[in-house]
Write a structure and sequence with these properties.
Structural class: alpha/beta
Oligomer: single chain
CATH superfamily of the largest domain: Alkaline Phosphatase, subunit A
CATH topology of the largest domain: Alkaline Phosphatase, subunit A
Strand content: 15-25%
Helix content: 25-40%
Bound molecules: zinc ion
Strand order of the largest sheet: 7-6-5-8-1-9-20-2-21
Largest sheet: 9 strands, mixed
C-alpha cells in the first residue's frame, strides 16, 4: 500500500512528456521517466465534466449519466442543468477511502461543489460554490483556514472568453500559485492516504493563447508578444508541481494526469443551421443575425430534430409521447437517426473543403446509458471543429466560436505520468485509458473495486476489469 498524490492538470497535452517540450516541464516528464507515462485517452465526450468524474470513479459518462457540463433534467425543452457533486452516482476514490475510515486531501477537483462530506479535507472545484456565500469546503470550518493561508481562494479565471488577455495571464498565475500554496499547506498539516489537486490553469491558457503557441493553428502569427505565454506558464506550473512533490517526499506514489488534451480550433459547424436547411428544425421566424437557439424560437409542431452546441454536439429528437410537443413516432426514431447520421457525417464547406464527423448513438459509446442522454453525439473533424448551437448565420460554418473567444478545442489525447517507488519499475511509454486510473489508484491504495470496472491498473499484470 502506498500514499498517493494525484496532480490533475486540466487539458494538459502529452507533448510535454517528449522532446522538445519536455524541457518546459522537467518535473512532469521526470515522473514519467521514473515510472511510466504517455497518452491518456479521454472519455467521449472529451470534456472536463464528465472526464474527471470518469477518471475517479472508473465509470464512463453513460454509466454516470453525465454527458457534459449541462444535462437534461427532464424532457421539457431547454431544461438543462449544470452537473454538480450531488449528481455523481458512483463512489470516487476518496469515497472508497472514506468508507474505510482513511483520510484524503482534495483541492479543486471538478464536480465537488457543493462540497461532499469526506474523511479529511476538501475544497470545491473550479465551478466554485453553488451560489454566492455557499460553502466551498469540507469541513465548513476549513474555509477560514484557506483564507488565512492564501487570502481569497481563486476557483477559476472569471469570464476568460471575454477578459483582456493580460488580465487572463495575471489571474491564471495568481490562481495557480494560491492553489499550490494551499495544497502544500494541507499535505503537510493533515493526515492523508490520498491527496489530489486539480489545476484549471492549463485549460484556460490553451483556450486563450493556443494560436500564439501552435504554428499549425490557422491564425498563428510569428513574433506575437504572447508567443511564449503557454511555454512560460508550463515552466511556472512545473515549478509548482516540483515544490508539491518535495512537500510529499520521495516515497509517495505520484500520478500526474489530464482529462483531455488540446488541438487548434479551425472553426465551428452551425449544426442547427444544417438541420434547418434539411427541414428537420423549423423556427417561428428567421432570426436577424446570430441568435442562441432558445425554445421560444422553435416551431415545435414542425420540428423533428435540434442540437446543442459546444466542443461536440448533442442531437435531440422531438419524440411523440416523450417531448411536450413530440412529432417523431417512436417507431421512426431508428430511421431518423440514420437520416441525421447521413446528413452530419460529411459536411461540405465549399472552398474550405470537407469535414468528416463521427456520429454515434449513446448505446454505441457506453455500456450503460443513464439519465437523459442525447439521441446522437457528434464529434466534428477530429475535434478541430466545434458545434455551433446558435442560428441566424445563413451558412453552415463559421471561423469563430459563438459563445466567446476560443482558440483550442479539446482533443481526446490527454496525458499521464506515474511514478510509484517500490511498486512500479520504469517502463516504456504507453497509451492508456482514462478508465485505467481508478483501478490503478485502488491498486496503489490497497482497495478493492467492483469486478465490473472497465479499466486496467497501470501496475504490472493486475487486471481488474472483466
Ligand atoms: Zn478539462
Amino acid at each position: 500500500m502506498s500514499r498517493v498524490l494525484v496532480v490533475g492538470l486540466d487539458c494538459m497535452v502529452p507533448d510535454v512528456l517528449r522532446p522538445p517540450a519536455d524541457e518546459l516541464m522537467p518535473t512532469v516528464a521526470g515522473v514519467a521517466a521514473r515510472g511510466v507515462g504517455g497518452v491518456l485517452v479521454s472519455t467521449l465526450p472529451p470534456i472536463t465534466v464528465p472526464a474527471w468524474t470518469s477518471m475517479l470513479t472508473g465509470r464512463d459518462p453513460g454509466e454516470l449519466g453525465v454527458y457534459g457540463f449541462r444535462n437534461r433534467r427532464s424532457f421539457a425543452y431547454g431544461d438543462l442543468v449544470q452537473a454538480n457533486a450531488t449528481m455523481v452516482r458512483a463512489p470516487r476514490v476518496w469515497d472508497r477511502l472514506t468508507a474505510a475510515g482513511r483520510p484524503s486531501v482534495v483541492v479543486g477537483v471538478p464536480q465537488t461543489s457543493p462540497p461532499p462530506p469526506i474523511e479529511g479535507a476538501l475544497v470545491s472545484g473550479f465551478e466554485g460554490p453553488v451560489s454566492a456565500g455557499a460553502p466551498f469546503t469540507h469541513p465548513a470550518s476549513l474555509a477560514d483556514e484557506v483564507g488565512s493561508v492564501v487570502g481569497e481562494y481563486l476557483f477559476d479565471v472569471p469570464e476568460f472568453r471575454s477578459a483582456a488577455l493580460t488580465d487572463v495571464l495575471s489571474t491564471v498565475y495568481e490562481m495557480t500559485e494560491r492553489r499550490f500554496t494551499l495544497m502544500r499547506h494541507l499535505v503537510t498539516t493533515r493526515e492523508w492516504d490520498l491527496a489530489m489537486v486539480h489545476e484549471i490553469g492549463p485549460d484556460r491558457m490553451h483556450h486563450c493563447f493556443w494560436h500564439f503557441h501552435d504554428p499549425r493553428h490557422p491564425s498563428h502569427q510569428e513574433g506575437s508578444e504572447h508567443q511564449n505565454a503557454i511555454a512560460d506558464y508550463y515552466r511556472f506550473l512545473d515549478g509548482q508541481v516540483a515544490s508539491l512533490l518535495e512537500a510529499v517526499g520521495p516515497d509517495c506514489a505520484v500520478l500526474i494526469a489530464s482529462d483531455h488534451g488540446a488541438t487548434a480550433m479551425h472553426g465551428g459547424l452551425c449544426v442547427n443551421e444544417i438541420l434547418r436547411e434539411a427541414g428537420l428544425l423549423v423556427l417561428r421566424e428567421d432570426p436577424v443575425g446570430p441568435t442562441p437557439l432558445t425554445p421560444d424560437l422553435v416551431d415545435w409542431t414542425r420540428t423533428r430534430v435540434w442540437a446543442e452546441g459546444g466542443y461536440y454536439s448533442r442531437i435531440f429528437f422531438n419524440v411523440a409521447g416523450r417531448e411536450p410537443q413530440g412529432q417523431v413516432a417512436r417507431s421512426d426514431v431508428p430511421a431518423l437517426a440514420d437520416e441525421v447520421r447521413a446528413l452530419l457525417s460529411v459536411v461540405d464547406l465549399g472552398a474550405e473543403g470537407v469535414v468528416h464527423n463521427e456520429v454515434r448513438t449513446p448505446q454505441e459509446l457506453y455500456r450503460r446509458v443513464r439519465g437523459i442522454p442525447p439521441d446522437l453525439l457528434v464529434f466534428f473533424g477530429e475535434e478541430k471543429w466545434r458545434g455551433i448551437g446558435s442560428v441566424g448565420f445563413g451558412q453552415s460554418w463559421i471561423k469563430a466560436n459563438d459563445t466567446g473567444v476560443d482558440e483550442a478545442n479539446h482533443s481526446r489525447d490527454g496525458m499521464y505520468a506515474l511514478a510509484a517507488p517500490g511498486r512500479l519499475a520504469p517502463a516504456e511509454s504507453r497509451d492508456a485509458s482514462i478508465l485505467d486510473v481508478t483501478p490503478t489508484l485502488l491498486d496503489l491504495l490497497g482497495l478493492e473495486g467492483e469486478p465490473d470496472l472497465q479499466g486496467t491498473s497501470f501496475l504490472a499484470g493486475r487486471k481488474t476489469g472483466p
